[in-house]
Specification:
The chain is α+β, with helices and mostly antiparallel strands. It has eleven helices and nine strands. The protein has a seven-stranded mixed sheet with strand order 1-4-5-9-8-7-6, sandwiched between helices. Strands 2-3 form a two-stranded antiparallel sheet. The structure holds 3,4-dihydroxyphenylalanine (DAH). 3,4-dihydroxyphenylalanine is lined by residues 169, 171, 210, 248, 251, 254, 274-276, 297-299.
Length: 332
Amino acid sequence: MLKEKIEKAYAEIKATIPQSEAELEELRIKLLGKKGLIPGFYAQLKEVPNEQKKEFGALINNLKTEATDWLENLKTKVVKARKPGADDGTDMTLPANFLSIGGMHPLSIVRQELINIFGRIGFDISEGNEVVDEWTNFTALNMPHDHPARDMQDTFFVKNLDQHVLRTHTSGVQVQEMLKGKLPIRTISPGMVFRKDNDATHSPFFHQIEGLYIDEKVSFKDLKQTLYYFVKEQFGEGTKFRLRPSYFPFTEPSAEMDIEWNKNGESSWMEILGCGMVDPAVLDNCGIDSKKYSGFAFGIGVERIAMLKYGINDIRVFYENDIRFLKQFIPA
Ligand code: DAH
């Protein structure tokens, strides 16, 4: 009797193909659950005569192993065939997990603003290399080898590339653009620059945007008006700024521009750019007739603009990739 029952159970198990995880679980309970078929057989073993116990015990054990293997096998098949959302308990109407899409780095935001501002008055974009030869970075810009002005910029020299440096400023792109020989030139050059310098307001690398305008009859008046327009667009009407006479080897006359800001509760000035009329010797170095053409140039510190815009007083936060800092610039 018991033997037949067990054989019938075998057949039944093999004939059942559950279509879902729920059906599979039902089958498992039917076979192996506390009140299931197989524990039931074990219970019936008590009634089997002693001399047959061994034989029947082995039969039931076999059945149990087979059933367990069979269930395991079916499980793999059912899970594989699972379609998303198909009665596996997934509620497809639940809101999706929140995925942060990130945002622009504050320096990228400011760089783009500057590109837009100058783009509106006809400046195109030019780019140069970060590793440049000394002639482009210094000599062509009126800084020959022995010129003390080279000391103004603590330079990283490139070890395995003779007479090459990590560009100390974007002014070398002026040289590159002038050498192309196409006039007039009205261009801005955004990019990273490198100097051996490191404290709360200086970093060994930072970003500049170089500006260059060369045509016939360009004067200091044009430079001033361009910069006034830039300040108004970037910082808003009424922002206090000043142009201070200064010195750069490649411009004559030269100036620096400062913007008023609130430094620890007190009004102060922050330098944001250097500028001037392109020195005629630089034009000549780059193959432009300085009798016919004149021009102005400027170099803006992108970090400085961002520090003023967002009220940041330590330049290093821009490069630490601290998500708590960067998160503040993700648009709501
Ligand atoms: N290259 C200068 C610097 O990095 C900034 C500068 C000054 C750029 C005057 C200019 C300029 O184009 O005319 O300190």
